[in-house]
Amino acid sequence: xxxxxxxxxxxxxxxxxxxxxxxxxxxxxxxxxxxxxxxxxxxxxxxxxxxxxxxxxxxxxxxxxxxxxxxxxxxxxxxxxxxxxxxxxxxxxxxxxxxxxxxxxxxxxxxxxxxxxxxxxxxxxxxxxxxxxxxxxxxxxxxxxxxxxxxxxxxxxxxxxxxxxxxxxxxxxxxxxxxxxxxxxxxxxxxxxxxxxxxxxxxxxxxxxxxxxxxxxxxxxxxxxxxxxxxxxxxxxxxxxxxxxxxxxxxxxxx
Length: 255
Ligand code: PEP
Description:
With about 260 residues, the chain is α/β, with parallel strands linked by helices. It has helices at about 15-30, 45-55, 80-85, 95-100, 105-115, 130-135, 140-150, 155-160, 180-195, 200-205, 220, 240-245, and strands at about 5-10, 35-40, 60, 90, 120-125, 160-165, 205-210, 230.
């Protein structure tokens, strides 16, 4: 049985001092977690986060990386720069980046491959907008995002990838997909990966749900057959709430 991977996405929140305070509060609360815990923090908090979590069960991720190793890309950060800091994970293709910063399936693919080449584990975000869901295009959009966004990612590389299914209409809105909506979309995504990489690789792939997951709804979502964890925005900024999500599966504390 898989454990769950619970990742916080702090987005553009927390100065270095605030990040240190949040982590110091969080670490003891999740020290005995049965699930994998990741915090994806702003670039300016990465150094402190890596130092503070050293020797603990909490892993550190960034929220983006470029696809080139170096060069004239003002404002960008190379995967090797993250790796050297001790960062293990990196969020790629979050819907906020797709919406506000021109991220496409092509740039998602390029960033994912560069992250993998540097030894980082990408958390690749996919998901449909409300308009796409309401017009019956959810499956078409997810199919395109998986087909284009993983075009020449190999089966071996896929083993180091986490996928986050994040319906855009549920992110930061307080509207959560129902347990069944999230599970059936993730089942569909898993089938796409099974068609491309085979059933064993697709079953082994961690696919998280993200979108207004919180301490009240996490247990139901994480109990679903295909939901392998959560990518959590707002609720990851409050140590007690994030810790409650981490501990909400398995609900009886046993595996
Ligand atoms: C996210 O940022 O990936 C996210 C799911 O945000 P929220 O939990 O706030 O909806």
